[in-house]
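Residues pack. One example:


***
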Amino acid sequence: MTTTGFLPITREEMEDRGITQPDFVYVTGDAYVDHPSFGHAIITRILEAHGYSVCIISQPDWKDEKSISIFGCPRLGFLVSSGNMDSMVNHYFVSRKRRPSDAYTPGGEAGKRPDHATVVYCNLIRRVYRTVPVIIGGIEASLRRMAHYDYWSDSFKRSILLDSQADLISYGMGEKSIVEIADALNSGIEVKDISFIPGTVYKTKDISGIYDGIILPSYEDMKEDKKKYAESFMVQYSNTDPFNGKALLEGYPGGQYVVQNPPSEPLSTEEMDAVYALPYMRTYHPSYEEKGGVPAISEIKFSLISNRGCFGGCNFCALTFHQGRTVQVRSHESILEEAELIIKDPDFKGYIHDVGGPTANFRAPSCEKQLTQGVCKNRQCLFPKPCPNLKADHQDYLELLRSLRALPGVKKVFIRSGIRFDYLLADKDDTFFRELVNYHISGQLKVAPEHISDAVLTRMGKPENAVYERFRKKYKKLNDELGKNQFLVPYLMSSHPGSTLKEAVELAEYLRDLGYMPEQVQDFYPTPSTVSTVMYYTGIDPRDGRPVYICRNPHDKAMQRALIQYRNPKNYDLVLEALTKAGRTDLIGFDKKCLIRPRKQTDNRGTAAAGNGKGYDRAKGKTEGRPAKKKTIRNVHKKK
């Protein structure tokens, strides 16, 4: 078995490279996949490019101390990440039931990493190596860097820096901060004195040298008063920009502070290109082959990342806290070079699966001033209306897609990342929209209106429903003009803060009128460091301090979810209960506007009876006492 080119994951591979003591050991909750869609691949390759040796411990047995010491003690420190996902999201559905598989583990096997993996791995390291520097990063550490609400334990937790016993957090994407950390350690600076690097969080009892910082409410005060946490969060939310963000200080008992430095500056196009030009093997380590490989590779093997960052500002999304609101892009040349590598792959069939990022059609900062003055602290770029300074221009993205389509061996270039439809409509030039419909959709386009109630959309930070309706009609018009029979698949979310049964019924009625029943519905999932999660925990919208209705009861959540899929016979009882509870029994009946029919009843003679005296048999799809009309059957059972 050859592993030439991969970083070492065994002592034998380390020795084959001539390494006697690695500079860093990277511990990850994912399988080792050397592809730039995986955070551990980017960070380790960047360190290697700067002259540091790195070995990888993938999915160690957290019950065995020997699993963390296979390479011995690293010269400079341990780097720890839970993986590409927060370990709790990776493990659990929103219902808190265990997921049966893990796409980031060989063979899709579940249970190969612990809950709260970053904390568990770090505590394991501390039991073996008490003084070695430990730096944590990745999505789990980044979004838990300050005190936060943890949905799975329904508790308010301290900064992960304290619970993990780590020395530093490298938050955000980490390419710049990790090199500065490595250089500081290599120069002999003790880890406790590394307090000056943007994009890091550290702990200290001496805050006298911090200039122009903001002292947040203490952990104890926030734990006692949820309103203080909501206020603290909005200060954090307003300081996620490297150009105008300030240092944030959060106090803990014993005079200790957790200090967040302002974020690292966004990568320039040249820096982005350099990151993606590193010598990745572009697949999983060969040792996983016998288990069938790592399932997650199939989603990204033939996809291209063109950007990062998002100025969309959806309240249920944590991108603002992790990647920031400033869009960073790769050059066309960089993307085309990677496309050439994809084309040479023996498994490539001519289809590039995606060209995008968090939002596919963002290929530049939202306005000119962002790269010098930063993003606005007190307003969003697209919500509630597009900012007058917004530059809605798809020309660069359009030229990129045309270049990719023209490559020999490419049959089709799809866009499967999210398309921000309000930004698309803000562009007065329809050329991109037309070419999107004509060339880049595989039968259906997935978009995310999330809801149709403007009251709920306001809580989500999404555009009003009228904007989606304009998009939907224009999409249909373009399909008709181009002779295409392509569909829209709207992503919808149930029980988001602010959504009562009233709004859930409104959504069901909208779907009825549209003739569409979604196959999947996402119940709102409170993940760390989002505006919506703060609403869920505190019952307060942190943006305006007003109270918000929160659907917390599992049964109430199930009713809201069932209403979106009211045509599914399995949901009948929940839909009936929801309509009754909402005072909307007018939607139970035989009229075409009704969502469900009355339950079949039996009179004292044992004869089926319902509503008009004729019992409706849902299982057989007919009305007893007379032949069923085909139209009736189709209306009830056909998925439109």
